[in-house]
From TrEMBL:
This is ATPase AAA-type core domain-containing protein. Keywords: ATP-binding, DNA replication, Nucleotide-binding. One of its GO terms (molecular function) is DNA clamp loader activity. InterPro entries: ATPase_AAA_core, DNA_pol3_clamp-load_cplx_C, DNA_Rep/Repair_Clamp_Loader, P-loop_NTPase. GO terms for biological process: DNA repair; DNA-templated DNA replication. Pfam families: AAA. Residues 47-167 form the ATPase AAA-type core domain. GO terms for cellular component: DNA replication factor C complex. CDD domains: AAA (cd00009).
Amino acid sequence: MSINIDINKQLLIQKYQPKNFEQLECETDMDIIDILKTLINMNNLNILFIGDVGSGKTTYINCIINEYYSTAQNKYPSDLIQENILHINSLKEQGINYYRNEVKIFCQTCSSIHGKKKFVVLDDIDLISEQSQQAFRNCIDKYSHNVHFIASCCNTQKVIESLQSRLIIMKIKPLTHINLTNILDKICSIEKIHITIVAKQFIVSICNNSPKLLIGYLEKFKLLNEENIDIDLASKICTNISFTIFDEYTSYILDNKLAQAIQIVYNIYDKGYSVMDILDNYFLYVKTTSLLTEEKKYIIIPILCKYIIIFHNIHEDEIELALFTNALVSLIHTPV
């Protein structure tokens, strides 16, 4: 049974999720798409995608599967096509028996789509144990004639060499500002969201190269239904803590006004933000602000990362906000 969903009621992240190579073209390197098309024609899709979080590894995998079965979509119901795809959850450590039983049974049976292989997909393969990776490798050795195996990872150091040697390794480059701007402009044009140029530049700069985060911001703007999104509104909507407050905080630090800077950061804390919230948002602010020179950013970021690690691994206490602020003032105003 198929369910019809009104596309106008979909979330933007679902509506604009690329589903084939054509939709990916404005967002990625065309060389990768050309290689993937060649591999599909060769019927050889044992691939390991390597890339940072949010680089689009899962999107590539979904597009490959859709392209591979594109000729069958008019002949077979979608439910039948989905029966030929096995997604393994890397967050749930399945254990060696899972690969010996469920995966083995899936791989042994032929595809229900004439002339096509099945797919086994394992996202974040670097999160599973070495023993499970060896079992996955054994499946590749035994069933590649019947099944395509596609995996992804962030850290190849945690993927065993014998498994890497069985797969075609493809490195996914991080999206550039041009790619992200293309995505933003495309969605704004279709959804009739009007954003100033300065606000667009700000949104792209704080989305951490993540299309999902970028589209999430646009979802908020669409719900607001404002005639025009300017930099002030974008700053309020796209950040948990207003960058205007951080502007004031940073100005006091640059002016060597320690007491006033500490008072501002405690005012933020009193509003209910945790120490980690404040530091994470300030880290985002430091990367984009024009108040600080690149030299000062180079000085501030290491100490900021140090405090974030301390709060994450050891303890979190509001007194550290004052110590952190004092450390910033000392760093900025200590002669080199």
